[in-house]
Amino acid sequence: MVSKSHRLGMNQSIGTLRQISLQRQRTQEAVERLHLIVEQSPEIIMITDVTGVINYVNPQFTRITGYSLPEAIGRKPSFLKSGHTPDYTYKSLWTTLLAGKTWRGELQNKKKNGELFWVRVAISPLRGYSNEITDFVALEEDFTDSKRMQDALLREKERVESLSRAKDEFMRTITHELKTPLSVILGNMSLLRSMPPKSGAQQWSRMLDLIDRNALRLRRSIEQILQLSRLDNLAVKKECVKLAPLLRDICEEYGEFAKGKGIKLAVSLPGRSSLSVSGDTELLRLALGNFVNNGVKFTEEGGVSISAKESKSAVVITVSDTGIGLSEKDRGRLFQKFFKANADAPGSGVGLALSAGIIEKHGGKISVASQPGKGSTFEITLRRCA
Amino acid sequence: MKKIMIIEDEPDVAETMKMFLEKAGYRVAIFFDPRKGISEMKNHDLLLLDIMMPKMSGRMVLAEMEKEKIKIPTIVVSAVGTPMEVGAQLSREYPGLEFLPKTEIAHDLVNMIKQKIGR
Lengths: 386, 119
Hints:
The complex is a heterodimer of chains A (386) and B (119).
Chain A: H1 4-40, E1 44-49, E2 54-57, H2 59-65, H3 69-72, H4 87-98, E3 103-110, E4 116-127, E5 133-142, H5 144-194, H6 201-230, E6 239-242, H7 243-261, E7 264-268, E8 276-279, H8 281-297, E9 303-311, E10 314-321, H9 328-333, H10 349-361, E11 365-370, E12 376-383
Parallel strand pairs in A: 7-9
Antiparallel strand pairs in A: 1-2, 1-5, 3-4, 4-5, 6-8, 9-10, 10-12, 11-12
Chain B: E1 3-7, H1 11-23, E2 27-31, H2 34-40, E3 46-49, H3 58-67, E4 74-78, H4 83-93, E5 98-101, H5 105-117
C-alpha cells in the first residue's frame, strides 16, 4: 500500500518529470524553429570563429555565391574578395569586431563563377556565457541590382548636368553669333536715318554695305544653326562638285572679313584645276566655308591659305592659318558639338560641329595639326569624283 | 578732343561704333589686338571693351589693367547676355564699370560716353 504522502510525493515527481520533459520539448522546438529561420533566411548568414575561419553558412549563401557548405567551411571569407573593396574597409571591419562592436558596411564580393556582387553586411560578435567573444555572425543582403541602378542613375545625372552646362554655353555662343551682326545692322540703320543722303554718298554707301553684309551673315548663322539641328536626318546629294569655283566662291565670301582684319586669304590649286569631289555642293560650301571662317576669325597676322591635291581616289583640301593655334587638349575636343577653346572666345561651336557632321555624312575625314601660337592646319579628305 | 579706344575683334562692329563716335565729335582708335591696346591706354580718355574675343577676353584685359594699375573710364560693350547678367558679375569685381548691349549702340552709346567724360 502506498501512503498518501508518498503518493503526493510521487505525483509531484511525475509532475516535475513531465514539466522537465515538456520544457525540453519546447526548447527543442524553439531550437528547431531557430534552425529553420537560419536555414530559410532570405539573407546570407555566415558564422566564423574568432580567427575568422568559417564554421557555418546557410543555404542562401550557397544559392548566391555558388559555394556549398563543405566548400566554405574551414576557409576564411577572404576567398570571396573581389579585389575592388579597398583594404582600409577590411581593416576597419576587424578593428570594430575585435573591439566587440557590430560592423556595418557594403562589400563587393565574387561568386564561384567569377561574377561580382554587392552585399550590405552587418557582422556582430557572438558572446558566450562568460561574455567572451566566441564567434562572429555575418548577416548579408545582396543588393547588386539596387546598386547597379544607383550607379546608372548617378552616371545619368552627371551626363545630364554636363549636357546642361554645354547647352548653356551653346546658347551663349548662339546669342553672340546672332546679336553681333544684328547690332551692326541696327547701328547703321540709325546712322543712315540721322544723315541726309546728300551729305555724304560715300558714307551712305559704306553703311549700306555694312548692313547688307551683316544681314547675310545673320542669315548664314541662322541657316547653320538650323542645319545643325537637322544634321541627323540630312539627305546628302551626290553631285560632281568642281573645287576651283567652289573654293574661289568661299574666298570671295570671306574676303572682306579677312581684308578688314588686315590678313591674307588665298586659294592655290595645282595646274590642272579640274579637281572634283563627290558630294552635295551647298553642304560642302557650308562645311568648307566654316573652316575658312574659323581660320580668319582666329588669325591676327599673316593669313589663311587654301589648297587641294589628289591622293589616290581621294582629294585632300587643306585650310591653313597663321593664327593663335590650339593646344593638344583643345584639338581633341574641337569638333564636339558645343566646343569652344576658351569660354570667352567667339564660339566656333556651331560652325565646326556642323562641318564635321557634313564631312562625316560625305564619308570623309578631318585632321588638324596645330600648336598654340603657331597656327593651325586642317586637312579635309573627300572622295574624288571621276 | 577726347580720344576713345575701342578693343573689339569684330571689324564691322568696331567700324559702326567709330562712325557714331566721330559724328559726336570724338577721336577714335580701334585695337584688334588687346595687348597693343593695353599699352596705349594711357593716351586715351575712355575705353570701349568687348568681352568675347579669341586671343584675350575682355575679362582678361580687365584683370591685366588691374594688375598694371591702369585707370581709364571703361564701358563693356557685349553681345552676350543682358547687362544684368554680365554687369552684375563684373561690377562686383570692378566697381565703376558700365555696360552696354551691342544692340543698343544706336540709342545709348554716345549718351553714356557724354555722361562719363563729357564732349
